[in-house]
Specification:
CATH topology of the largest domain: Four Helix Bundle (Hemerythrin (Met), subunit A)
Low-confidence stretches: none
Helix content: 55-70%
EC number: 2.7.13.3
Structural class: alpha+beta
Protein name: histidine kinase
GO molecular function: ATP binding; phosphorelay response regulator activity; phosphorelay sensor kinase activity; protein kinase activator activity
Number of domains: 3
Mean pLDDT: 80
Keywords: ATP-binding, Kinase, Nucleotide-binding, Phosphoprotein, Transferase, Two-component regulatory system
Number of strands: 7
Radius of gyration: 51 Å
Enzyme class: transferase
CATH architecture of the largest domain: Up-down Bundle
Length: 435
């Protein structure tokens, strides 16, 4: 089938080339005929001028010179249309040029005798026979042109017939190719369906594993948290009269409640197959203030200035649990790497703002004055178990930023990191869609 298509294609290209060649020769023949017809017309004008003079009328030199110049011009253009290998054409053109020049000489001689008053000599040297001879040579060349035009027309007809015979071959080849492509398309569609089914099975399996893992983790965490919450409530009642103890215990109780909300949010997230709930939402300012309060004591102990820039009221398409986990991981990470407070200004700033052309997103930034992220690790720092060289001696497994990235992207957002404004430290930017 392919060989047949190639053969048909080659034959078609060859036939098309032949057709162009034949049409070019027909066009050239037509241009030659026009030039030859013009030579013949000007030769007749020259003969008529000579004939009138031989009959006793004044010789019109202006008319004769114009006709002769036009004839010579057309003969020169006719020669330009002829190639060196067209020997028969060249021979006929030479004959036309020779007889035309003979006619010019005869007419000039007759005109000179008439001007001298030699009527008898002019009559004996009549140019008309020579003009007729030149006209006959033009007639023979015209016949040759007509014959060549007819031959080229026949060749064009033959080429058209060849192309018509090739049409069924192309139809058969096209049908074969169509069947081949259809078979390949069906095979690709089946393979795509199989791969999609396998991917769905893997996704379902991973979702089930994620849910089972989350349930186990939630169970293992909630048991001690429940006991801790009960003891904290009892402590609040017992030390109600001691303001310092009561305040610390209440802060502990709020942290326990927040841990339960985080567990609930992550559990809901895991049970949904790693996708957020369609109607999930949270007010950024409320979650941010709540999470930041957990790190006030840690920041004071580390001599780090923790600055929470009050954000406007904005709601993101993310529940409070995952958002708390995102903010908590980023703030904890910043406090861990900003330093121990013994050298220079140690500062962590958290801010949030509306972004996008129509405020369709919220950007939350956590900026620190620590050593920053080494060059070349701006992407890999979000991979699981990857830790920067600056984290040597710091506790952790390298899962915090990986968890943040997964939660952000699952909620149709993205996270990036860049150096701080002064070139020091790191600035993590989380972008989440508004609810």
């Amino acid at each position: 089938m392919i060989l047949g298509f190639v053969a048909a294609h080659i034959s078609t290209v060859t036939a098309a080339g032949d057709l162009r060649s034949h049409l070019t020769r027909i066009k050239t023949t037509g241009m030659r005929s026009q030039r030859l017809s013009s030579v013949r017309g000007n030769l007749h004008r020259m003969g008529m001028a000579a004939g009138r003079a031989e009959r006793g009328e004044p010789f019109d030199r202006t008319e004769y010179d114009a006709a002769r110049a036009a004839a010579e011009f057309d003969l020169a253009r006719l020669r330009e249309l002829t190639s060196a290998d067209e020997t028969e054409q060249l021979a006929h053109e030479d004959e036309v040029a020779r007889t035309t020049r003979q006619a010019e000489v005869a007419i000039e001689r007759s005109a000179a005798l008439l001007a001298a008053g030699d009527l008898r000599g002019s009559h004996e040297a009549s140019s008309q026979p020579i003009v007729h001879a030149a006209d006959a040579s033009i007639e023979r060349l015209s016949a040759l042109q007509m014959s060549e035009a007819e031959e080229e027309s026949q060749r064009v007809d033959d080429t058209h017939r060849r192309l018509r015979h090739l049409s069924p071959m192309f139809d058969a080849a096209a049908a074969g190719f169509a069947l081949l492509l259809l078979g390949l398309a069906i095979k690709a569609a089946r393979q795509h369906a199989r791969l999609t089914e396998e991917a769905n099975q893997v996704a379902e399996q991973r979702a089930a594993e994620l849910e089972l893992f989350a349930v186990r983790v939630a169970h293992d965490l909630r048991n001690p948290l429940g006991g801790l919450a009960l003891r904290t409530e009892l402590g609040i009642e017992r030390f109600a009269s001691s303001a310092p103890f009561k305040e610390e215990l209440q802060r502990t109780k709020r942290a326990i409640d927040r841990m339960n909300r985080i567990i609930d949010g992550l559990l809901t997230f895991a049970r949904s197959g790693g996708h957020p709930q369609p109607d999930a939402s949270a007010v950024v300012s409320e979650v941010l203030v709540d999470v930041a309060s957990d790190f006030v004591t840690e920041a004071e102990v580390a001599h780090v200035e923790l600055v929470i820039e009050p954000p406007p009221t904005m709601t993101v398409a993310c529940s409070a649990g995952p958002l708390s986990s995102i903010l908590g991981n980023l703030i904890r990470n910043a406090l861990k790497f900003v330093g121990d407070g013994t050298n220079g200004n140690r500062r962590v700033v958290v801010r949030a703002s509306s972004t996008g052309n129509r405020n369709e997103a919220v950007t939350i930034e956590v900026e620190d004055t620590g050593p920053g992220i080494p060059a070349g690790m701006e992407e890999s720092i979000f991979d699981p178990f990857v830790r920067a060289r600056t984290s040597d001696g710091k506790p952790g497994l390298g899962l915090g930023l990986a968890t943040v990235k997964r939660l952000v992207e699952a909620h149709h957002g993205h996270i990036t990191v860049r150096p701080g404004p002064s070139g020091r430290g790191a600035c993590f930017a989380v972008v989440l869609p508004v609810a």
